[in-house]
Amino acid sequence: MTTRINFNGDITENLSISFYDHGFLFGDSVYEVISTNKNRPCFLYPHLQRLQNSAKGISMNIPWSSEKFTEEIDRTLLAAGNEESYIRLIVTRGEGAVDIDPSSCSHPNVIVYVSDEKKYPEELYMSGVNLAVVSVKRNAKEALNPGIKTGNYLNNILAVVEAHRLGAHDAIMLNASGNLAESTTSNLFFAHNGTLFTPALGCGILPGITRSMVMRLAQENGISVEEGSLPLEALISSDEIFITGTVKRVMPVTQIDGDSIGSGRPGPISKKMMRLYENLLDSELPYDPAFKLNF
Ligand code: PDD
Q: How large is the average pLDDT for residues 236-254?
């Protein structure tokens, strides 16, 4: 149960960050969450690829190469010494004037946070979670593109707070056009007559790495997947629903706004995708430095 934090290459047990860091002042940062299997980071290279894309999306240059990240992550994992870990990479704009203009920031700060793995209770995978459709809309792509994984998560925070107030585990967020977007830290899938549906990237969502892998696994296993602009009604009348994310992996959803979906139990496609994804994590692909995703 150890936490270690690597700050620009120095590993400590705890970290205080400068008041003047624009990550603190304005949420001006990018980040990634990575899980491990046998304490090896899963899909490290696609996560680093997405981190670079996010940095590009906010005009920030990350001072570390992929090789440097790999080295520093390994060092931090070793220093923490957990059996399985939760890894959070954060790159902040760095210290500057108390002014939103980032041009006063001299250099980004790179942080590798490693703690014991975070796990969702097993019961949730057996029962499925309940989600609430919240009034908070996902940021418009033209405002703050949800495809950029920035440290500015207030949009999602407002949505999860509303969902909890409504007695749900998490939220379903719609986009400004009223179509399905995603959950607050996960992507959304539903099945109808044996076909899987998921909002297209153009709907304004994060290009989830788990989402990509689940789509690929489904297709490889004879389940067709359709991406598109999807209305809420299609979700409500679906046979089964699940959400995907690095930490939760594939999590069944059995209630929306308190109403049961399908049989009210995790459905056969959700269970199949849960199993296929677990098997994938035990294969060599997630650890292959040559494995890239097209974001
Ligand atoms: N969240 N959508 C949002 C808004 C997310 O924050 C995440 C990930 C996902 C799923 O992406 P991936 O499969 O690449 O983890 C979708 C991470 C886990 C987090 O912030 O904790």
A: 98
